[in-house]
Amino acid sequence: MAELLTADSCALLVNDYEENYDNLVVQVQDVFPGTLDGHMLSKTAEYGLLLSDGRHSVLVMLLPKLNHLLEAKKIISGAFLKIEGVRCRTMGGYRVITITYATVIGEPASDIIGDPEEISLKLNALVSKSSAAAKPKRHPFLAQLKGNGRAYGGVGRPSEPAGSSSFQASSSSSKKGKIRAAHPHSSTFISGSMVAESSSTTDNPLFTDLVPDMIDYTVYGRIYEMKGPHSFRNQRSTGKVMTLVLKDRENNGMRVVVFDRAYEVMKREAAVDSILRITDARIQEMAEKFQHVGLLLNEITLNDTSDWEVCASDHGIPPMAVAFTALPLLRAVESKSRVNVLAIVKEVGKRHSFGAGQRVASDGAQDADTNHAPGQVSAERRRLEVQLVDPSMNIIRFTLWDKRADMWNGFRGNVVFLKDVVVVRYGGVGLTAYDATVIQMNPKLEGVSELKKWWTNLPNGSVFQHLSSGYSASGGLTVDTAPRSDPLSFKEVLDSNFGQDKRVDTFHIFGVITKIARNTTYEACRFEGCNRSLQKTGFCLTEEHAEQPENDGEKRYCTAEAVELPLIAFSPVGDVIMGTTADEVHKMQAHLDGPYSELLRDTLSGLTWFKFTVQARTRSWKQNNGRMKYELQYTVIAALKIKDDDDDDWDKDEDKDGPVDAEEVKAADTEYNTMLLFLYNVRAAQRPSCELCLRTWDNPRLSAGLSQKARSQSAAG
DNA sequence: TACACCTTTAGCTGCTGATG
DNA sequence: CATCAGCAGCTAAAGGTGTA
C-alpha cells in the first residue's frame, strides 16, 4: 500500500506552485467541512481534506465541483487520491491549497499509512512582537474562530470528537520547522524537513506583514473593490465610510476603511484597479463581523491625516486576477446577480433621450399612480445600449443610463472589462451598469490580448447568437445583429404567447409594404436622440432642451409611423422603412403629387422585401377609472431591406448576420404569409379604425387571430 | 382630460440567526 | 481616539411621443 504513495508529495503541494501533476498519489487521512466560525463558507459546500504521503500530512481544500466524489463516498478516510490539478494561493498569512482535479484510485485502506505529521500552512511572516505573536492568526478558510478546532466528521465518516490538535494548534506544533514564504518564482524546493527562514520583506512589505499599531511602513496595493461611501451611526458618532479591498503583489487581500474627508479624495482620485501607496496608516484588528474569506484579519483605516496616494507605477503588483463569467453562462445566472465580464464591444448604440415620468410599473399596476401629467416639463433620462461579444460567439446587450451613458467611451473592437455588472432579464438576459459597476476600456488584464486576437482574426460573415431576445430601436443599433435568425410566419406570431404578461420577445418576420399613409412626420426636438415633438408648444418639454439650437432655422423631423398588426415604427427605424430621412419625407409631403407619391409608389411596389425585427410586449397603463388596461404591442426595432429589384443602393455589407440571399427571400415568399404593411396616417381624419385595419388582411385566419388577440387583451384590462 | 404607447434605478426599511 | 453589516424587497421618482 505504502508504495502507492508519492514520496514527499505533501511538501510538493505546499511549496510547489505547479498546477498540474502527472503522478502524485496521496492517502486521504480525513475529510471535514470547511467552515468559518461554524458556518459553511459559501452556498456551495466546501470541504477540506487532510492528505498524507506517509510521512507528512497537509490540509487542502477540495474544489466544490469535486464534491460528487465525497457524495459518492469515494473520497473517504483511507482512500487513495491521484492529484492532477492544484491551485495554491497565499491568504491571510497561510498557504491555501485547493485540489482542482483528482481521481480516486484503488480501494481505500483500512488504516492510515505511517504516522504522518501535519505540515503547518502558516507562512513565516514578519510580525511584531507585541500582538500578532501572542495572538496567532487564523487560517482564512479553516480556522475555527472560537478556537474549537476543526469540525470533524461532516462527511464520509461518523462524528469524531473535535481534535485538540486543531488546524491552528498544529501550526504551533511545527517543531519540525516552518515553511518559508516561498515566492512563486522561487525554485527553492523544500522537502521533508523544512528550514526555518524569515522572508526578507522589510524593504517592501506585504499586507501579511502588517500588524496592529505598526508604524514606519509603506505598502502598495491594487484596488479590487470600492464600496460606499455610506452613512453609519454608532453610540459615539455618525459619519460616512467607504471600504476598499486591496491586494498586494502576492494577492493578499487587505480591507481598507476610509473615513472623513479621505473618502472624498479617494472617490475622486482612485478607482478599481488603481495602485495605492499607504504609509504609516493605522492598522487595527478587524471586527469579527467584517471578516471575510479572502481578507486578512487586520485592516487599514484612513482618515484626513493619513498618508496615501494613487501611484502610476504598479510596484510589482500583478494585474487584477478576476473571475469572469462567459457570456453564454449568463443565461443561467439569476436576475440581479453581479458578475464580471470581459468582452469585445461589437456595437455602440446612440444615446436616446426620453423623459422620466409616467412610469407604469412593469410588475403589477399598484404604483401606477405616480403618473405624470402629460405636457408637463420634466427632467431628462438618457439611455445607451452597447452590444458585447465574446469568443462563444454570443452577443449580449449592455445598458447604461444617464451619467453612465454619457461617460461611455468605448468603440467597436475595444475590449471592455465590466466588474460587478448586473444581470437583468428584460427580453432575455442582459447587463445593466449599476452604481457599483466598474467599466474599464482596454484593461491590463489576463486574457485581454487573446480576446483582441480573436476579434481581429474573426472571419468575415461570422454568425453571432444573441443572448438577449432584443434591443431597443432607439439605441440605433445596426440591423446586422440578429436576436433570432429564423423568421416566423404571421400565424406563428399570432398563435404564440410572445409579449404576453411580462414576456418581451423579439423575432423576425419578412414582409412587403403594400399600403402607406401620408403625413407620418412631426417636428421634433433638435437635441440628438430626443424624439419629443415641438409641434404643440414650439419648445421641447425636456427641461434641458429648452433652448433649441438655431440650425439656420432648419427644422428637424421625426417619423412616427404605425403599421398594421399593429406594428409601430419610430425614427430611426421608420427612416429605414421609408428609405429616406423623416426630414426628406416631410419636405416631400408638402407636395403630394411630386416626389412623395413617387416615394410611396416605390415603397408600395411590392418589390421591396424587408426583414423586420419586431418586439412584442404587453403594455399596461392606468385608466382614468383607476383600472389598468393591457395591450399587446408589436414594435419594429429594426428593418433591413433584403431585396429590391430597382434599388442599387442595397448594401450587401450591411447584412452581417448571415446571408440573406435570393433563396431565403424565395423561401419567405412561399413559406410565410405575405405581410401587408399598412402604414396608416397618424392623423385622426385619415386614421383607419381598428376594424378597418383588420379588414385589410387578405388572410381571414390572420384577421381572426388578430382580433381575438385584441379582444383577449382588452378583456384582461 | 382621457387615452395609447415607451419601461429603470437609487435609496430606504427591516430583517437576518446562532447562542445562552 | 475611533469610527464600519448586508441583503432582499419594496417604493418613489424620474417624461416622452401622439390622437380624440
TrEMBL record:
| Residue ranges of every copy of the Replication protein A OB domain listed in the record | 380-442
Annotated region Disordered: the residues are: 152-183
Q: Check the record and name the InterPro entries matching this protein.
A: NA-bd_OB-fold, REPA_OB_2
Q: Which domain of life is it from?
A: Eukaryota
Q: Which CDD domains match?
A: RPA2_OBF_family
Question: Where is there biased composition of kind Low complexity?
Answer: 164-174
Q: Name one GO molecular function term.
A: DNA binding
Keywords on record: DNA-binding
By its UniProt entry, which SUPFAM superfamilies does this protein fall under?
A: Nucleic acid-binding proteins (SSF50249)
Q: Tell whether DNA-binding is among the UniProt keywords.
A: yes
Q: Which residues form a coiled coil?
A: none
The protein's name in its UniProt record: Replication protein A OB domain-containing protein
